[in-house]
Amino acid sequence: MTNINNIFSTKIEFLKGVGPKKAELLNKELGIFTFGELIAHFPFRHEDRTQFYRVGDLHEEMLYVQVKGKLLRKEVVGSGRSKRLVAYLKDETGMLELVWFKGINWLDKQIKDGVSYVVFGKPQRFGHKWSITHPEMEVITAETKVEGGLMPVYHTSDKMKTKGLDSKGVSKLTRALLENTYDQIQETLPEYILKRFHFLSKKLAVAYAHFPKDPTLLADANARLKFEELFFMQMKLIASRMGKKTEKFRGQVFKNIPTLNLFYKEHLPFDLTNAQKRVIREVFKDMTSGYQMNRLLQGDVGSGKTIVAFICMLIALDNEAQSCIMAPTEILAQQHYEGLKEHAEKIGVTIDLLTGSTKAKKRREIDETLRDGSLKIIVGTHALIEAKVDFKNLGLCVIDEQHRFGVAQRAALWKKTSVAAPHILVMTATPIPRTLAMTVYGDLDVSVIDELPAGRKPIVTSHRTDANRLRVFGFIKEEIAKGRQAYIVYPLIEESEKLDYNNLMDGYESICRAFPGVPISIVHGRMKPEDKDYEMQRFVKGETKIMVATTVIEVGVNVPNASVMVIENSEKFGLAQLHQLRGRVGRGAEQSYCILMTGKKLSKDGKFRIETMCRTNNGFEIADADLKLRGPGDIEGTQQSGILNLKFADLGRDAQVLQEARALAEQILEEDPDLEKEEHAVIRRQQARFAKKETNWSRIS
Ligand code: ADP
Ligand code: MG
Fold first, then answer.
1. Which of 152, 267, 653, 684 has its CA 20 to 30 A from that of 56?
2. How would you label 220-242 residue by residue, b for 16+ Cβ within 10 Å and e otherwise?
3. How far does the centroid of ligand 1 lie from the alpha carbon of residue 406, in Å?
4. Residue 366's closest CA among 346, 351, 386?
5. Closest residue by CA, ligand 1 atom 16
6. Domain residue spans in the chain?
């Protein structure tokens, strides 16, 4: 057994200079309980204290600078909230203003006219004047030695600062701790990896991540720690995926395909795209492998995922197994049901629909036919994972629009089978960047439909301000006159928010006035589900020409005759949502349009989003832009994945590193799945440390 109880598990109060009070603060404010955790509390940036600048050389892009000079005079000016202490520091090239709004009285006593100081802070320019607000000050004396290297800046809290645990305080403790324990920091990556990538040793990387002598060493330290972080994450994800391919997760083997062949030959309504064919081959391979399939199917809106799902269900059907397809909303389940029924009827396959509003009698019938196995394909909502539904032999479960279903719900489905774990196909139209998919869905294999069916015309997207509204309405009228339909969507941040609702209703009224005689539907979150459904169906059937709605129509709804999507207050939507909404049009043969309405003034982010939408129709490009804009934290599915705990890596920027780390993890686990080779002992030890930490955490929470 490896010994992982070492000096780094020592309680933090035993560190010289800490004591019970500071220990408590470190526990409570930063979650630091041990030596090891203090060392793992890395600075979030470094300040360059090797360089001094002259006032005359300052420019606006500089982040933090050090300036040496003599304090000429100081004064307290202003009153109330704008009361401030201003001091004037002069060097041989110019004058720098120093300003404080807080701690004025104390500072006024500390700093003295005629004394020379080193000041440190972020320079700002006001006209010809340079100033630094709340600079750090140090008196220049005979002993002032320039602190070498880059100075680490640590996160602390206000409470900590009052007890001497500001960034400098933390830095001091960390430095002392590192000096004493440096030799005991153990390597966590095999020698051959260090060599291959020219990485620093773990010891050096940790030391330089805190106290680098220069920016190059800091970058080297970061590169290693970043790689290590992603590598161990991928090791865990890949190992868990491999674990599923053992006895416990055997999958049914689906080898026969007579019905599928018949469908292919006689009833396929169109030629499949190459991407669709490829995905079907990938799925078929999984289904014949003897192991449970866990596959994510990514395909942009309109790329034709439904037919792929149907074909996969036929494979199950040809092998005496049942399939279900789950949709996130009732309307979507209904649409899937109708779409699939059309295909199914042609080949004499029965299919049914189960949702929350299925009547009791029908419900009993479905329960029975699922149990005796006579019903082969069922479409539904969450109702499907309720305890009472019982399949004779569930062989395939398709989950549409994955982001609405949690991991727990996916797992609940697995239990509903008597033979083996069902094959799982998760379909999503929210393209998440590949880097993120590899992490969030590290336990899933990924297939991509990266090609739209032939003959689709790319949607034309434009940006209009409220001042153009009449012209926009005029355009909608022309489209309706050509026999087409239009969506007008309003933002809804919170379904219950009164403001949003009023906004929608105002909009609806003005639209009714602008389009006299045109039948108009409205759908929003406050309506009863059956009313919503009714209105939706009217629009689907073409009885109404305009659909005024909140984002309830966002996902999946298919009305090929709709050619215009107007999005009101579009600056309020996120990129993923805008892309989803736009995907509601462009589903037929006609040219479609998306019009993004905004006010006159836009924030920087808002402008970026609108420009991105106007520039491209490609979901992956949009997803990448989204990742750059927001970081991974806000993207669906990331919460459970642990990627938010990344300290060094940034998935938006480190795609390359992630690829390398993943490839390496895959290679290692393929060659040495139990990490038995001597050279991999270091990896095993590190995993044991992680495991220990996790159990500790689960005990606490
Ligand atoms: P999504 O991937 O967004 O779920 P759908 O499966 O709803 O897309 O397909 C969108 C539309 O494209 C549907 O009307 C469908 O019948 C049609 N479609 C799918 N695949 C093809 C194809 N290979 N050629 C032509 N039309 C197709
Ligand atoms: Mg769909």
1. 152
2. bbbbbbbbbbbbbbbbbbbbebe
3. 26
4. 351
5. 304
6. 2-43+160-210, 51-148, 248-449, 460-616
Chain segment 529-550, per-residue pLDDT in tens:
788 888 888 998 999 999 999 8
Architecture of domain 51-148: Beta Barrel (2.40)
> CA–CA separation, 355 vs 383, rounded Å?
5
* CA neighbours closer than 13 Å in the CB half-sphere of residue 41: 25
Mutate to test the pocket of ligand 1, among 428, 558, 584 (most ligand atoms within 8 A of CB): 558
270 Cβ below 6 A of ligand 1: yes
Residue that the structure tokens 């041990």 belong to = 34
Residue nearest to atom 10 of ligand 1 (CA): 302
pLDDT tens across 70-90, in order? 999 999 998 888 899 999 999
Pair 375, 365: CB distance under 8 Å: no
For ligand 1, is residue 303 a contact (CB within 6 Å)?
yes
Q: How many CB atoms neighbour CB 629 within 10 A?
A: 16
Tell me which H or E stretch contains 97: strand 94-100
Please state the pTM of the whole predicted model: 0.62
Confirm or reject: Cβ of 325 under 6 Å from ligand 1: no
Q: Which residue has the tokens 């590949």?
A: 434
Q: Would you say the CB of residue 428 lies under 6 angstroms from ligand 1?
A: no
Q: Quickly name the fold that domain 460-616 has.
A: Rossmann fold (3.40.50)
Q: Which two tokens stand for residue 510?
A: 């003005």
248-449 sits in which CATH class?
alpha beta
